[in-house]
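To assess whether ligand presence alters the predicted conformation, the chain was also submitted together with flavin-adenine dinucleotide. Input:
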Amino acid sequence: MTVLIAGGGIAGLTMGLTLHQIGIPFHIFESVKVPKPLGVGINLQPTAVRELMEMGLADMLGRVGIQARDYGFYTKTGVEIWTEPRGLDAGYNWPQYSVHRGQFHMALFEAVKDRCGADCITTGARVSGFSNTGSGVCVSVETEAGHQEIEGTMLIAADGIHSAIRAQMYPDEGAPVWGGAIMWRGTTVAKPFLTGASMILAGHDTHRFVSYPITETDPQTGCATINWIAEKTVDPTAGFSKEDWNRQIDIDLFVDDFTDWAFDWLDVPAMIRGAGTVYEYPMIDREPVDCWTDGCVTLIGDAAHATYPVGSSGASQAILDARILGAAILEYGIGEKAAQIYEAQVRPIANRVTLANRGNGGPDAVMQMAEDRCGGDFSHLDAVLPYADRAAHALAFKRLAGLSVDGINKRPSII
Ligand SMILES: Cc1cc2nc3c(=O)[nH]c(=O)nc-3n(C[C@H](O)[C@H](O)[C@H](O)COP(=O)(O)OP(=O)(O)OC[C@H]3O[C@@H](n4cnc5c(N)ncnc54)[C@H](O)[C@@H]3O)c2cc1C
């Protein structure tokens, strides 16, 4: 019998490739009928890149992304607060990749079809519920043809932040949690800033700009495709009706919030104005929960631990989840025991990261420290926020998120 996977996003497709690698039959149900390259930029941490490379996907990464070299935090006036090297430059044995989420997703989709056969995925198939049967699981699937009950050995729910399987486990949970931040996301073809492969965040908690290139610089034009997110926090009690990644928005509705952000190394208003299509999205996450597993059913990726996109952890953790669950299945067999071993290893860390990303534990919290302590004049930054404090903050997050260089370089392969 087959392992059933709800959701053909980054977590579900990595899960499929992992099960194929260890010789376990699987089937993915994806609700979207024709998957398209949706979304903008995401970052893949070295720990996730290692997994993709160990699955033989190094060439694909080179095609759909660019190796990030450094990650810097800046004030709203463009003054540097903290910059650290990333990937190989930071001493990891694997690079960090900045990729276009949609192109990366499509490449994973093709890899599953090539390696495992197109009949491993049914698109236009929405998983709506499950029941444990004692010997496995029975999954409800809705397609154009109607309702079906499908039996499998296990259900792995990789159905994202609006997971139907999580909703069955937690019927009172309701909508994702919105803290009031709105993100406007786009890509612009422009000359890259700083090293040409730099990821930057400028501003502070309630008003900021994130940007990094997601393609190599074209030697002919000197330009690259640059991903950016402009972000502002409003009163969350006013409510936000849409949580769709595809809600398009007019640039003129928000660009004035960034008029003064033309730094000598990055012209933020020009970057915003250069974009073709801009998407509006609320910064949402999910309250951490105490259990991801119910019998032979377990949650992975955003279904398990949706977090704010501030520490490059969403897609990276989704990939790791699939690998760690795969390793547990390899060791303990398909079923509840493997799910529990996976959950025990991942849930405490993922829940801590979700909470840290909400408040002052995330790597970006150093920006709010600068804002609070400098009172708008950042010329005395070193005096009010000493270098040692900034370094200690950066190290604390890496420890919390399990991203220490030695920890990753020295650990054996997951599979
Ligand atoms: C369209 C889209 C665009 C995104 N764009 C960005 C972005 O630009 N930047 C960013 O940081 N993050 C983005 N994300 C989120 C990011 O991909 C995830 O945070 C991360 O990769 C974790 O992946 P995941 O597989 O757990 O979830 P997702 O990538 O959200 O994948 C979940 C998949 O499950 C499918 N699905 C949902 N419900 C069901 C169901 N009941 N039955 C079957 N299938 C179901 C969805 O169609 C989707 O393909 C986007 C997600 C989506 C779906």
